[in-house]
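Lecture notes, continued. The same structure-token format from the folding unit now serves as the input rather than the output. Read the line below as a description of shape only.
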């Protein structure tokens, strides 16, 4: 038989309170899972060959460039699969951000330079973090496919820029970008639900 108690004499059903505690605990467990970064490989296989553009969206990310004329292209000269992202590097860079504004981590990507002529071939990768700090690494380019693994602390990012340091290359190709994304909307919804449930339970218990 449930025991009822309370300061004001109305009391609270102990069994119902126990159920509420379990419910809140389950919400918090779900919250802990929801805020874990979800792994993702951006392989550009959801694109089509629509010619040169200034903005491309793929895998929940937006890729944009400050180049003119429009430098971005979903190319069939893919590293693997049907499509890769290519761009002409002459005095331009390519930036990537999540489409929903959530933060992400960057781990690795495949790339190569097309139409390489002569001289040094390098490119910078610059990351902007949510706290206002930045992280950067410089890598040697190549005219054959190479897989690049980032060594720094590439986490809590809001934006990443790929910037070539040498323009005597017809274009760059990038594919298989390994990232992880924190699903902010789901985490916020669960956190708010847990807070409302906790407030309701405390109101039932009373002072």
């Amino acid at each position: 038989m449930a025991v009822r108690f309370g300061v004001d004499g109305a009391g609270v059903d102990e069994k119902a309170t126990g159920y509420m505690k379990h419910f809140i605990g389950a919400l918090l467990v779900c919250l802990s899972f929801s805020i874990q970064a979800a792994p993702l490989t951006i392989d550009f296989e959801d694109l089509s060959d629509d010619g040169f553009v200034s903005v491309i969206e793929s895998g929940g990310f937006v890729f944009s460039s400050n180049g003119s004329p429009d430098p971005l292209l979903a190319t069939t000269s893919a590293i693997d699969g049907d499509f890769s992202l290519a761009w002409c590097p002459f005095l331009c860079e390519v930036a990537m951000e999540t489409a929903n504004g959530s933060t992400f981590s960057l781990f690795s990507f495949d790339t190569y330079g097309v139409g390489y002529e002569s001289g040094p071939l390098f490119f910078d990768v610059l990351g902007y973090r949510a706290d206002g700090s930045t992280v950067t690494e410089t890598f040697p380019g190549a005219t054959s496919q190479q897989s690049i693994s980032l060594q720094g602390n590439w986490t809590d990012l809001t934006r990443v820029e790929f910037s070539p340091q040498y323009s005597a290359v017809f274009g760059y190709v990038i594919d298989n970008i390994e990232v992880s994304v924190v699903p902010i909307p789901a985490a916020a919804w669960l956190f708010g639900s847990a807070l409302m449930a906790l407030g309701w339970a405390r109101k039932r218990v009373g002072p």
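Point for the exam: The domain at 38-182 is CATH 2.60.120.430 (Jelly Rolls).
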